[in-house]
């Protein structure tokens, strides 16, 4: 009998080791070996370069910062600027690629770990669900970015077979949160159940929270009425994030702001619907989540009036071309995202929007975000940055970064 007992114990230990060594995608608040970011050529939105330098310099003060670039002259121009921004050079590593890799969180590496090794989780790339048809062909090489980097690093790749971008998911230790667009729009030939099963297995999580509608502020190109702008086409990190395993921060639009434009009216409705869904969601232990809300910036303060020209109209989706003609008056708006912060070693880097001359209510929103982050991350510096240039490109700080987990 004692031999059977010994065998049972050995089998139990072996199974336990296998269980604990399973690869998973850690929540962002776990320690980082490095944070990846990008300083690659971006022909469409060159104004975002300066704000990207701010992010790189700030990151380097807290964590090893791996900067992916594709252009030597662009890198050279960055070096002096980073120096003036106080970058910590011992923490900065430039990694050259032969392809542009902008918005590194989306096509870039998603690292899983078993504590001792890294593995790359590879999701297929469809250029945000072909959100920008005119640029889809140009954008295709970004889909191989993560695999090429994994090969250079000598780490294994797990291919999932489904389409998804890094900014489309947010995770706690046991839950993945996403908008339904990540399943329905990117993977129309698969059921929601199939997509969910694949994501949970790949990231080693227990459950999904799906939110039905994403805000129009994140919709690419034509949003509503005569309002245009850039967006990631349904990314959860625009609006809703985990603060810990039991707490979620969710964006809302205030009663004061909701009637200032048709875009704000519609996003007010969407955010309220999301909030009701989050209130009904349950943790794996059956308990409700703690929901903390943050008011979105007032979109109407940022509308930039313009006239649509033929070249821009030619790059739109077919349904947009039917509604507009060259010479029509339109308005552009940046993708304003308070929830698009990055949690890393010793710091949470977040956006701020208020400037002199703006209503005091916008300053209060900035301060509210910082108060929330201080409460939930008391041992980290809260570092607000003005990254409006990045937001005009359709994202924020989180979109420009991706964490590499620290190994034991």
Automatic annotation (TrEMBL):
Keywords from the UniProt entry: Hydrolase
Protein name (Swiss-Prot/TrEMBL): Agmatine deiminase family protein
Entry-linked PROSITE patterns: PROKAR_LIPOPROTEIN (PS51257)
Top-rank taxon, per record: Bacteria
